[in-house]
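> example.struct
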């Protein structure tokens, strides 16, 4: 069961998403139609995942992400937006979104995205993952936009953690990494979580960018 907060200014859509989540066995801990309210409510609700619309009536979804991450550094944000524009996607990811799904996604795809987001996997509508990886590589090559905090001296990773990190940077899912390295899905998750802790990062999106900047892709 995943603790989920739903933030969308369209009541019917918000209620429908909350209903789908509840029927799938997840716990909807809060809903909101405004960004500022969502940032205020989140610390008490303590969601694992926030399903967030990009366009809100008071502040932008990007501002909400920043507020959420400041209040709850471990929270994972899945954008659920009508827009699939490249600029919107990149802005959301740079702000700290773990994944980005367009609203035309099927219910099963959405529920799977929530589950995977809660597990720390970056989830993107088909075609957007390559865009994000490409942007990270461009920024790493140009040395620009160092918005993801990281330690100056890289902590020592084990050989296996480094191996997993390289595959994360290539955009492979936990399941694909497990098959490639002949490990269990849980073991791969543990390696990723240990690496996140050592590097003082919060999710696989940040981890992917770190790996690319260090030339591990």
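> example.seq
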């Amino acid at each position: 069961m995943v603790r989920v907060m739903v933030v969308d200014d369209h009541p019917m859509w918000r209620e429908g998403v909350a209903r789908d989540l509840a029927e799938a066995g997840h716990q909807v801990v809060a809903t909101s139609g405004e960004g500022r309210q969502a940032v205020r409510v989140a610390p008490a609700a303590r969601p694992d995942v926030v399903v967030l619309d990009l366009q809100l009536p008071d502040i932008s979804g990007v501002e909400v992400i920043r507020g959420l991450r400041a209040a709850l550094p471990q929270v994972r944000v899945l954008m659920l937006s009508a827009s699939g524009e490249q600029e919107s996607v990149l802005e959301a990811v740079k702000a700290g979104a773990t994944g980005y799904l367009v609203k035309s996604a099927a219910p099963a795809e959405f529920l799977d995205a929530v589950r995977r987001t809660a597990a720390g996997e970056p989830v993107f509508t088909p075609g957007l993952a390559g865009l994000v990886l490409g942007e990270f590589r461009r920024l790493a090559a140009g040395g620009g936009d160092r918005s993801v905090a990281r330690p100056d001296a890289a902590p020592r990773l084990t050989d296996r953690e480094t191996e997993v990190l390289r595959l994360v940077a290539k955009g492979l899912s936990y399941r694909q990494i497990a098959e490639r390295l002949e490990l269990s899905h849980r073991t791969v998750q543990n390696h990723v979580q240990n690496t996140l802790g050592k590097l003082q990062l919060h999710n696989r999106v940040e981890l992917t960018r770190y790996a690319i900047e260090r030339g591990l892709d």
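> remarks
The two ends are 33 Å apart (CA to CA).
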